[in-house]
UniProtKB/TrEMBL annotation:
Species whose genome carries this gene: Kribbella yunnanensis
Molecular function in Gene Ontology: methyltransferase activity
Pfam families: Methyltransf_25 (PF13649)
Descriptive protein name: Class I SAM-dependent methyltransferase
Domain (Methyltransferase): residue spans on this chain: 45-131
Gene Ontology annotations of biological process type: methylation
Length: 223
C-alpha cells in the first residue's frame, strides 16, 4: 500500500486501498450527465483512474469514445465494452491525443506535489490542442470533520479525521453496502487556487474555468 493509504474488507484491493468489489457495485450519480454537457458530442475521452467503469459505461452510452486507464488489472477487467490500458497515470505516455482528458475522484488531491505534477503532465501530454482537461477536486469541507451519511442500502462514515500542515488531511472512510463493510485510509491535500494554477502552468496547462460554483470541477486547457 502507498504511504498514508490502505484498505480493508472483502475481496481484492488496489495499491491505494480501493476495494474492487465495492466500486463494482457503485453507480454514476449524475457525473456522466454533467461531463456530457461540458464537452462536445461524440468526444474522444481519455479517462484516467477509471476504476471498474462507473462513469466509463454511461459516457459510452452517451456516444463518446472512451479509452479507460487504471493501474489495476482487476478493475479494468470489469470494462469489456471499450479499450482499456493498465498503467499508473504518471507513467502513461501514449502516442495519441484526445478531445478530453478526464481525471475524477479527487486524484488531483494526492498529498505530494511531485506526484501531482506527474498526473498533470500526463493530462497535458494527451490532450489535443484546443481540447479540455476536466478535473474533479476535493473541497476543504469534504473531509473537515467526522460524519455519517446513510441511504437506504448503504452507509458511509468519515472518521479519524486529522488536519495536518500544508492543507493535508488524514481520514478513514468506511462504506457499508448490503451488509458488507470496507474501510480505506486516506491522506489528501486541499489545493488553493494559487497552488493549483501554479502546477497546471508547470505542466503546460492553464486554468480555463471552474465548471461549478463551488470550484469542485475545473476545466484546464493546453497553454
Amino acid at each position: 500500500m502507498r504511504v498514508g493509504q490502505g484498505g480493508s474488507g472483502p475481496g481484492a484491493h488496489t495499491p491505494d486501498g480501493s476495494a474492487i468489489e465495492m466500486y463494482e457495485q457503485a453507480e454514476a450519480n449524475g457525473e456522466d450527465e454533467f461531463i456530457d454537457k461540458a464537452i462536445d458530442p461524440k468526444s474522444s475521452i481519455l479517462e484516467l483512474g477509471c476504476g471498474t467503469g462507473r462513469i466509463t459505461r454511461p459516457l459510452l452510452a452517451r456516444g463518446h469514445q472512451v479509452v479507460a486507464v487504471d493501474e489495476s488489472a482487476e478493475m479494468i477487467a470489469r470494462i469489456p465494452e471499450t479499450e482499456t490500458i493498465q498503467s499508473t497515470i504518471g507513467e502513461l505516455r501514449l502516442d495519441r491525443q484526445f478531445d478530453v482528458v478526464l481525471m475524477m475522484s479527487y486524484l488531483i488531491n494526492v498529498a505530494d506535489d511531485a506526484e501531482r505534477l506527474r498526473l498533470l503532465e500526463t493530462c497535458a501530454h494527451h490532450v489535443r490542442p484546443g481540447g479540455s482537461v476536466l478535473i474533479q477536486q476535493q473541497l476543504p469541507t469534504q473531509l473537515a470533520e467526522p460524519v455519517v451519511l446513510e441511504r437506504e442500502h448503504s452507509r458511509m462514515e468519515i472518521s479519524d479525521v486529522e488536519h495536518l500542515p500544508g492543507n493535508k488531511v488524514a481520514a478513514t472512510i468506511t462504506h457499508t453496502r448490503n451488509g458488507r463493510t470496507w474501510s480505506q485510509q486516506l491522506l489528501t491535500q486541499n489545493l488553493t487556487e494559487e497552488h493549483l494554477t501554479g502546477q497546471l502552468t508547470e505542466a503546460g496547462l492553464q486554468l480555463a474555468e471552474y465548471l461549478t460554483p463551488d470550484t469542485s470541477w475545473v476545466r484546464a486547457r493546453p497553454i
